[in-house]
Amino acid sequence: MNTNTQTPTATPKLSIVFLNYNRLSETRYTLAILQRLLETRQDIEVIAVDNASTDGTPEFLKSQENWIRAVFMNTNTGIAGYNEGFKLARGEYLLVLDDDSHPLDNETLDRLIQCLDTRKDVGVVACRIEDLEGKPARTWHLPANDEPGSSMAFVGCGFAIRRQLFESIGWYPSEFFLYQNEIEVAIQVMRAGYRIHYDPNCRVVHRQAVVNRTNWRRVFYPTRNTIWLIRRYYPFPIAAYLIASRLFMGLFRALQSWEMRSYYRAVKEAFAMPIQLQRLPAPVYKQLTTFRRQNSVFHQLLGRL
After folding, report:
1. Residues paired with 116 in a beta bridge
2. What is the pLDDT of residues 39-64, one digit of tens each?
3. Who is most buried in 50, 79, 109, 232, counting CB within 10 A?
4. SS (H, E, C) 42-91
5. Mean per-residue pLDDT, 70-80
6. Phi, psi of 278, deg, nearest 5
7. Torsion of the alpha carbons at 198, 204, 205 and 206, rounded to the nearest 10
């Protein structure tokens, strides 16, 4: 891993961190938006992490070192690359983006800072994720009513978190590599006694680039990582039911995309990993109701009737 030597003089309040892997055009787009938003601000820094791209992204990031800080990984480490950016951040709060997402405006940045400044019980602010036309993303990670309030989780391409809190829970779980890492963080945030607050006025645009969104990844990582989460936090017999449900749903997706080999490997790794059960407080299990229903065959079928 290499980092640039650019050291901004002002101490930032907020550090924006995003990760890139072979999506140069998206990184250019994101940085162009951020540069425009931040041209008159001294309270925000930008940290870009590159996961050993071969498409010219490292060279481009080096050309931007007059106003950003960059981290260059030697290999593609998945979400672990984010962690290296988080460690370098100097802001009290972190705004986490993907290379194909960006905050809509400065109002979003101001609201994130204000919320974390004034609401000490909030550990994470989950942003409204929308497309380029302003339509909200349909995801079970956020409240369905699109109203401000408590949320079970957040979407990884747009959320703010207290840096010290994130550090205390160990950043992203690097073994996940991709997908479901947000759920692990959400559980740890709630376990630490903090709330996840959804603010639909904190708006992040997710352009949803198709590069690197391969079928095998969508079969392998959600199947393996979700079973890891169930094994870690749910006791028998609910764990047995949720794992069986997750195996069925993973198999269905694998058959749809002709990815049986990836499914087999996911199942093998899901049970090979030594995992010790960690029981959660009852209020946390209650907050995880949406996660449980999302991974229940019964509730998924009921929702489609």
Report:
1. none
2. 999 999 999 999 999 999 999 999 99
3. 50
4. CCEEEEEEECCCCCCHHHHHHCCCCCCEEEECCCCCCCHHHHHHHHHCCC
5. 96
6. -120, 105
7. -70
Rounded to two decimals, the pTM is 0.93
Give the Cβ contact number of residue 301 at 10 Å.
Answer: 10
The span from the CA of 171 to the CA of 183, in Å, is 12
User: Residue for token digits 């995309």?
Assistant: 257
- Which residues, listed in sequence order, are joined to residue 45 by a DSSP beta bridge? 15
Q: Is the previous residue joined to 235 through a cis bond, with omega within 30 degrees of 0?
A: no
Neighbours of 34 (CB within 10 A): 21
Per-residue confidence band for 300, with pLDDT thresholds at 50, 70 and 90: confident
Residue partners of 5: CB distance under 8 A and separation at least 6:
none
**In this structure, which long-range contacts are made by residues 104-108, counting pairs with CB atoms below 8 Å and at least 24 apart in sequence?**
104/130, 104/203, 104/204, 104/205, 105/37, 105/203, 106/37, 106/41, 107/201, 108/201, 108/202, 108/203, 108/204
Phi–psi pair at 103, nearest 5 degrees: -65, 145
3-class secondary structure, 121: coil
DSSP letter, residue 135 = P
Smallest CA-to-CA distance from 270 within 228, 212, 207 is with 228
Do the beta carbons of residue 54 and residue 96 sit within 8 Å? no
